[in-house]
Amino acid sequence: MSNTRRGANNTANDNGLKQLLDAEDGQGDTDHVLQTNDQGTQKYKWEEKFVRSWETIEEDEKGLRPSLQEDRDTRTRRQLKDDQRVRRGMQRHVCLVIDLSKSLEIHDLKPNRHQAVLIAAENFIKEFFDQNPISQLSLIITKNSKAEKISDLSSNPNRHIQLLKMVSSTIEGDPSIQNSLDVSIATLSYVPKYGSREVIFIYSSLTTCDPGDLSKTITTLKNENIRVSFVHLAAELYVCRHISDATNGTMKVIETEHHLNEALILHCQPPPTIGKVEAALVEMGFPQQHTSQTPMMCVCHEQFKYVGYTCPRCQSKFCELPTDCQICGLSLVSSPHLARSYHHLFQVPIFREVNPKSIQPNLKCYGCLLPIKPNYLNYGCPRCKKIFCFDCDQVVHESIHNCPGCENGLEFLDEKDNREEEENRTTTTINNNDSDNNNKLVQQQQQSIVDQMLVDS
Amino acid sequence: MKIFQYLSSLPENEIQDLYSDAFTCRAVLRSLPPRAKQYLMRLLVVDSISMQSVYQWTTQSSIQAHKDAIRKLLDLKILTRVPNPKGVVSQDQLFLNQRFKDNIKDSLTDLDSVVLKSVKDNQSAQQHIKPMTVEELDKYSKGQWEKVLYYLSDEGKAPPELVSDLLLSSNLTKKNGTSIAITSEGFKFMLKDIYTQIWTLIIVYLNTLESRGRPRKEALIFLFKLSFLTLGKSYYLADLNPNQRDMLFDLKEFGLVYVRSEKSDVFYPTRLAISLATGRTVSLMNDLAQEISTSQKDQGYLILETNFRIYAYTQSSLQISLISLFVKMLYRLPNLAVGILTRESVRSALLHGITADQIVDFVKQNAHPNMVISGYPEVVFEQIRLWESERNRITYKKAVLFDSFPNAESFSKTVTFAKDQYFLVWFDETKKMLVVNDEGSEPIRNYIKKNFT
Amino acid sequence: MDNVNEDDDTSLLVIIVDLNAYSWGKQVELAEQNIDSTSGSRFITLSTFFEHLVIFINAYLLLNQENQIAVISSNVGESSFIYPSNHVDTKDKSISFKISQSLNNISKHLIEEIHLTSEENSSSSSFSAAMSLALCYINRIKKDNSTIRSRILVFNISPDVSTQYIPVMNCIFSAQKQSIPVDSCILTSTDSTFLQQASHLTNGIYLRPHRQDHLGQYLLSSFLIDSYSRKFLNVPTLKTVDYRASCFCHKKIVDIGFVCSVCLSIYCKYSSSCTTCGTKFTIKFNINQLKTSSSSSSSQSENK
């Protein structure tokens, strides 16, 4: 069954290529005007994006073929992470500053900057709490030369998104970097020393309207150990670059809506800590879910509820985790929340691209068993030397956060090799299962090849 | 009419016979709704169960669906309900059909049952015949089915005898003198999804088999068996009995199976045959169904302008012949056909029994996205309806005629009364006749009784 | 039948079978001991388990012609696909036949292997690897057929391994995010904390059959239900899962613990350095100070 589908897929790809070639030769299909894109929606050619199809063609000894550079670039951009184990600020306190000035009216992003920013911000908030459940976020908007905090530091994504939607409808005036930073500093200075403090700007305007000397603010930022990062929608401003450099932040100028999302998502990964940061043991409560016979007042909504989590110290009731106990100040979390952050600490090594020439026929992706396509991007894990296809590489790094090969007993690896050899000897005598043996041989060959290839590249 | 209704309509003993075939049981199980499948699986391991306990399986929110599922199983005679001797309805016991149960149980433990042995790859290679690929089969079945639809819509073509017989006896077409024309039923049929279309014809086919003195039970079992074959594999004709072989060649006309030629000794099942018994156009068939119905449903291709011109962006001659049922075609370009709606063209469709609403719905359903955006030309739709009402100038309403009034006074008084009460339809003073509408008959009668007797 | 597309229960099932030779060996002892008692045999041996499993797979494939299946073995130090298998099978056989054949081969292997293994290195199966493979495979099938509903069914027999905690949790979160239910069937007498959490977080079914000789019945009635039908059928649910953390130092379940701000290790008592990441805590952390600072921040926000 899967065979047939795969077949269909291939032909679809071929058709795509054929269309491309046909179009260049000027003898495409009968539907010159209407063409169907990937989503199945139809657009006129003049509505489509300008495609430089000749740039995505690469030449090698076998002739022309579509280039893989774009896919490769996307991957490197997404997996641009520090490979080593570095100390990261796991408990993050982030002020997200959104520029809601007049400049958002420009239509260079689709449908316009305003919508693009709101969508991207919403995605970011969701993804941020998904990856950093014990971190906290505060939303600040800047317009009319003022900055306003619209939500306090908290860990409830829905509340942030709700508040953002309420205030974001109007855009007016100029933004102010300094005012925003002052509000952020005021918010973040209460944060305990062991937590990391960050400010992330989504900035659109080319100007800023500041009341005083920005360099003093920068000094304060440095003293308070606050990292400021910018994502700019239009161009690199000196002031942005200067602030981000001075505070160890990053400065990104985005190209497309898609790139905007990517740039923000990169901030979901906790940054490495700067310099010497105080470490501390933080007291945390692990409340259990209780269903009581009689309804009890919850502290967060002030409503009577049956189900809830009770703070182990003061016995007050909360509806959702994680949260800070409003009565006694204890951080309330559950163990999965902590576990969710662990993958930032123990990362999957970045896979290295495998030289297509050295790939054996009949080789299959270790993760999904699809045959490895030699003319496409394939990756090898530097630790366990298993080979993965492009899709699996993406899933392993972005969703699973485990390398299946390495999980398969990295510590047993040496020992197992020996045993496998022994087994090979025994199985040839006892068991006449040829295919099984072949299989092992292929695997062994595969490993040695990967070794070579990795050295090559 | 779908397969379930058909099966439930079969007499008790015939359906019991069907359940003695293991593959039929499997096919029936597969085509049940998900909930019913789960219920059956749970019932496999118990002898009987009370209605009460079955109720506890479902969530409260979907109690209606639960009842439907149980009803369906009872209708199909898979479950039997034995009333509780004490008359407590909730304690009624449900029994699973013994044959059905045994067959399903057997197939659970049976690891290696195949309906027919498929031809090995290397064997077909020996015979120097290139095996059919899945794509080729899809193309073939699609073409074959389109042909059937084409016969339906195009009067000029003479279809094979079997197909034309089926179309006639299913009331989709009718003989119009020498030529055959599509009926209103047929037009509706064209708008249905492919699965319904096929089953409609198959059921007619099964009924004609019966009238030809061949057992339809065997035919049904064969159909169910076909659905267990593998797509893209070929099977030996020699493994079939003569009846099945006859049927195979009949099914070929619908594109359910592929046989290269009369002399060929292998056949290929197509997607249509394999997903026939699953009972729905699932993903296997989706691609195909979409291709055929894209033009019919999902993806519009028609643009109708207020000047009565119609543009059909399509290459399929099936679609064009469908449109030409009510449109006078003008030009035919590679990807476009242009026609105009005229009084004559629409009238000819109306004469076939196609209604104006059907035409309007057809145009709306197949509207090109751009036409949907810019709005439908209501003027044209209105005109089509007017053309239809031209043919129906008389409307019938029930009325009551009163005559032989004794004198002029009683007559005129009754007329005034009828007028006041808005019952009056017509009256004639000289003949002393009065017509009132239906609801007026009783009051008038009472009035006359009261005043003039 | 009315809603043709909504009524679709086509699904992809990935079965993870724990084939830890050591645990199955222990299970044999248990089964023999329990056979004397009046309750019948509460535990089953590997071969009986395979029989039940094959029937279950058969039933699953019977339900819908397009149902897809994958079987992954989670073995000591090596998890691999049983079906679809790596070696090309030209034989024209049914899927369940192929699976049962490979299962038989495996059980032969296991018997040979069991003599080579000792308790120290073999009490754990690499469950996290099997989960990772399952998720990779599901991702691939989803690419071809985006509407398919997938789920994972885990047969567990060996005890949880604390070193696998992080990778297993990673897999669980990945499954949760893609809304893939993780069903677990526990074949030992002790509950598995990993799988309890996995099933609870992903809305899967967690079941520890009391009478394993009736395993087939459990499988047919509970684990056959596809994720679509779960919306309207009552399924066994887990009442509460203990999400309290256990501390890294004494493995004690704690209500209030101390968490290292660098590596998030949990301790039940205050200590001057973290044993996991080696960080020395520079200041003696004052709880009262935290109280005042956080309460002042909260009071400040209230003022606003």
From TrEMBL, chain A:
The family database entries (PROSITE patterns) matched by this protein are listed as: ZINC_FINGER_C2H2_1
Zn finger (C4-type) location: 311-328
**Where does the record say this protein resides?**
Nucleus
* Disordered: annotated span: 61-85, 420-439
> Which UniProt keywords are listed?
DNA damage, DNA repair, Metal-binding, Nucleus, Transcription, Transcription regulation, Zinc, Zinc-finger
Stretches of Basic and acidic residues bias are at 62-85
According to its record, what are the GO cellular component terms?
transcription factor TFIIH core complex; transcription factor TFIIH holo complex
- Pfam families (UniProt xref): C1_4, Ssl1
Extent of Low complexity compositional bias: 426-439
* Gene3D superfamilies from the UniProt entry: von Willebrand factor, type A domain (3.40.50.410), Zinc/RING finger domain, C3HC4 (zinc finger) (3.30.40.10)
- Domain (C2H2-type) ranges: 381-401
What domain of life does the native source organism fall in? Answer: Eukaryota
GO MF, any single term: zinc ion binding
Matches recorded under InterPro entries: C1-like_sf, Ssl1-like, TFIIH_C1-like_dom, TFIIH_SSL1/p44, VWF_A, vWFA_dom_sf, Znf_C2H2_type, Znf_RING/FYVE/PHD
One GO biological process term is: regulation of transcription by RNA polymerase II
UniProt lists the family membership as follows: Belongs to the GTF2H2 family.
Could you tell me which NCBIfam families the record lists for this protein? Answer: ssl1
| Annotated protein name in UniProt | General transcription factor IIH subunit
Origin species = Cavenderia fasciculata (Slime mold)
Q: From the UniProt record, report the name of the gene that encodes this protein.
A: gtf2h2
From TrEMBL, chain B:
GO CC annotations on file: transcription factor TFIIH core complex; transcription factor TFIIH holo complex
- Provide the transmembrane region boundaries: none
**Pfam families the UniProt entry points to:** Tfb2 (PF03849), Tfb2_C (PF18307)
A GO term, aspect molecular function: ATPase activator activity
**Keyword field:** DNA damage, DNA repair, Nucleus, Transcription, Transcription regulation
Q: Which domain of life is it from?
A: Eukaryota
Domain Transcription factor Tfb2 C-terminal, by residue range, is 382-449
**GO terms (BP aspect):** nucleotide-excision repair
Name the major location.
Answer: nucleus
Q: Sorted alphabetically, which InterPro entries does this protein's record hold?
A: Tfb2_C, TFIIH_p52/Tfb2
Q: Which residues form a coiled coil?
A: none
Kindly list the places in or outside the cell where this protein is found, as annotated in its UniProt entry: Nucleus
- PANTHER family the UniProt entry points to: GENERAL TRANSCRIPTION FACTOR IIH SUBUNIT 4, TFIIH, POLYPEPTIDE 4
What exactly does this protein do? Component of the general transcription and DNA repair factor IIH (TFIIH) core complex which is involved in general and transcription-coupled nucleotide excision repair (NER) of damaged DNA.
Protein family membership: Belongs to the TFB2 family.
Q: What is this protein called?
A: General transcription factor IIH subunit 4
Task: Print the organism lineage.
Answer: Eukaryota, Amoebozoa, Evosea, Eumycetozoa, Dictyostelia
Automatic annotation (TrEMBL), chain C:
Quote the subcellular location field of this record. Nucleus
Main subcellular localisation: nucleus
The protein's UniProt keywords, in alphabetical order, are: DNA damage, DNA repair, Metal-binding, Nucleus, Transcription, Transcription regulation, Zinc, Zinc-finger
> What InterPro entries does this protein's entry cite?
TFIIH_Tfb4/GTF2H3 (IPR004600), vWFA_dom_sf (IPR036465)
User: What's in the GO CC field?
Assistant: transcription factor TFIIH core complex; transcription factor TFIIH holo complex
Organism superkingdom: Eukaryota
Gene Ontology terms: biological process: nucleotide-excision repair; regulation of DNA-templated transcription
Q: Mention one GO molecular function.
A: zinc ion binding
What is this protein's function per UniProt?
Component of the general transcription and DNA repair factor IIH (TFIIH) core complex, which is involved in general and transcription-coupled nucleotide excision repair (NER) of damaged DNA and, when complexed to CAK, in RNA transcription by RNA polymerase II. In NER, TFIIH acts by opening DNA around the lesion to allow the excision of the damaged oligonucleotide and its replacement by a new DNA fragment. In transcription, TFIIH has an essential role in transcription initiation.
Q: Which family does it belong to?
A: Belongs to the TFB4 family.
The entry describes its oligomerization and partners as: Component of the 7-subunit TFIIH core complex composed of XPB/repB, XPD/repD, gtf2h1, gtf2h2, gtf2h3, gtf2h4 and gtf2h5, which is active in NER. The core complex associates with the 3-subunit CDK-activating kinase (CAK) module composed of cycH/cyclin H, cdk7 and mnat1 to form the 10-subunit holoenzyme (holo-TFIIH) active in transcription.
Name of this protein:
General transcription factor IIH subunit 3
> What high-level taxonomic lineage is stated for the organism?
Eukaryota, Amoebozoa, Evosea, Eumycetozoa, Dictyostelia
